[in-house]
Amino acid sequence: MKFSSFLAIAALAAAGTAGAHGGGNSSVLFKFDHGTGNQVFRSAAGVPTLNTVAGVAPGGAPWGITSLDVTIRINGDIRGRGEGVVLLGGDGLGTRAGPRQVILSLFCRNVPVPPAVSAALILTPFNSEPVDLNEDGDFVVRGKLTDATGASPPLNCGDTIDNRPVLLIRSVTPANPTTGAPATPGAWFAAGLLADGHRDGHGGKGDSDRY
Fold this sequence. Notes:
Layout: H1 3-20, E1 28-37, E2 41-44, E3 47-50, E4 63-64, E5 67-73, E6 77-83, E7 86-87, E8 101-107, E9 126-127, E10 131-132, E11 139-144, E12 166-173, E13 184-199
Antiparallel strand pairs: 1-5, 1-13, 2-3, 4-7, 5-6, 6-11, 8-9, 8-10, 8-12, 12-13
């Protein structure tokens, strides 16, 4: 067999493998194509309690989000855009109120033990850098998701069936240049919802690659 023919066959085989894993977009870990605002309270045995998620308290008033398009890749890259992160209650209704930046936090899940189909969230987040929130409640994120050690989200972070990861859009305590304290994430305002079938790059428009 000629060397050129061998290369052509090898290339076709590689393409077939890539197509079988993620529809030709196997670098995508998760895609979130819409979101939901926070609800401050939920019921616990009939008693109102804070709607805490992954150990993170909600903002003190209801918040909304108009649209969200975020892609997270297996190397930890995050690209996307959110629009309309604004208050849905209080005198600041319809505004971003005090926040001028947000941080996105991804929480993975433990592996479920059969017959269970879901497991508890792992309370160690993978955070983006702070990104600006404009006067309309819009933001663009482009960077890396890392935990406190600098690690990226693992491949077994969750799936799109029942054991789904959680993506929170959170307030920011700004960095303190005097003390050297870094910016830290605070309460959650909104959350991302996974696109149908968008685990490991299955389908999707790839719009977030523009950001």
